[in-house]
Amino acid sequence: MRRSFKFLLRPTRGQVVALTACLADHQQLYNAALEHRRTAYRKAGVTVRYGEQSAELKHIRADDPGGQGRWSFSSQQATLRRLDKAFRAFFDRVKAGHAPGFPRFKGRGRFDTVEWPKDGDGCRWDSQPGHPAATYVRLQGVGQVRVHQHRRVLGTVKTISVKREGSRWFVVLSCDDVPAETLPATGAVAGIDVGLVHLATTSEGEHLANPRHLHTCAERLATAQRDLARTRRGSNRRRKAVARVAALHAKVRRQRLDAAHKAALALVRDYDVIVHEALKVTNMTRRAAPKPDGVGGHLPNGAAAKSGLNRSILDAGWGVFLTILSHKAESAGRELITVNPANTSRTCSRCGHCAAENRVTQAGFRCTACGHTAHADVNAAVNILRAGLALRDAARAA
After folding, report:
1. Does residue 258 sit in helix, strand or coil?
2. Which residues form the Probable transposase IS891/IS1136/IS1341 domain (predicted)?
């Protein structure tokens, strides 16, 4: 099993300068390689590939020993592979008929990660194993950087990445052969229905809270964004205002991740089989489509209400929660089943009658056929569980 471990770095002031320079040089390499490909195709119709650009690295490093030559050759190759991957994804989207999205040049805010493909090649995890009180990672051109290691690293470290998030720096380890932490069987099964009032509701009637961290931070965030809007581009005041807004968003993100981890862990510990809906959050949070009135204007399309709903869905973090739940279930040896979400909230879990009128309110469910009443989310979770168990039985019978 492959797993990633993320730790906060504690660099010195000089190491922060070096890390920033490393990121800037890799960003410059990425943009130069992208320009090389664009120009070659536009001027001569020639397609430049990764192998050709990687072969030129030796000359680039020799011509710029105080810049590109400072950093690990393998990390620069990883940056060129990143560009190559972006082009392959672009051509795959073209073939599939999707919106292609040609690879773009990366500004400072869009290039925040440098990867070393192999532990020991330009980098070394736990480079001072004999140190009695701290863990260090050695990075070529930066030095021995202290790591705040808050948990044990399992498996074999394969790749090492350094990532900048606002004013913080993190090291991300991708490890192979991580042993599964199988939990003892409980014999319990559950369906879960995600929502906005509660993050998730189980078929047994348990509600997992939705902390709504963005809503809680909305007033402070609005104040910070108003201050940002009043600043002049390029000014020192604007730089500080941008940092304040970024810090607030980063805090909300960390809080949301923490809540999702805790909720997923609680479910994995309690149930052997977990069933949830296969939600497409990206499609659910698209903007409302405009409605032309035929005379050059537009009809009301509920864009304001849809915008508020999208914000609430993203604040709940359904996609993050379900992704973390799948990872924890795999590690713990639990079975996770996904089902089609169609009509799960309007079907009676007692008689099977399906009608929009069954959903009386956001929390209320009353079947118009048999009169069964229940909490709407619990009723939906029961339907989800039954659909998941039916899928499992059909797969086993086949």
Report:
1. helix
2. 181-287
3-class state of residue 169 by DSSP: strand
b/e per residue, 82-119, with b = 16+ CB within 10 A? bbbebbeeeeeeeeeeeeeeebeebeeeebbbbbbbeb
Would you state the pLDDT for residue 49? 95
* Start-to-end C-alpha separation, the chain: 28
This prediction's pTM: 0.86
Q: How far is CA 172 from CA 3, 16, 115, 161, 215, in A?
A: 10, 17, 9, 5, 29
H, E, C per residue of 310-323: HHHHHHHCHHHHHH
| Cβ–Cβ < 8 Å for 123, 138 | yes
Going by C-alpha positions, the residue among 122, 117, 120 that lies closest to residue 160 is: 117
Residue type, 131: H
User: 301: pLDDT confidence band, cut at 50, 70 and 90?
Assistant: confident
pLDDT at residue 44 greater than cutoff 80: yes
Determine the residue type at 234. Answer: G
Structure tokens at 317: 């973090």
The DSSP symbol for 72 reads -
Residues 66 and 85 sit within 8 Å (Cβ to Cβ): no
DSSP codes of every residue in 179-201: PP-PPPP---EEEEEE-SSEEEE
Can you read off the two tokens belonging to residue 162?
């350094």
| Token pair for 188 | 């319990």
What are the structural domains, with CATH classification, of the chain? 3-176 (no CATH), 189-211+253-292+301-397 (3.30.420)
- Do residues 231 and 150 touch, judged by C-beta distance below 8 A? no
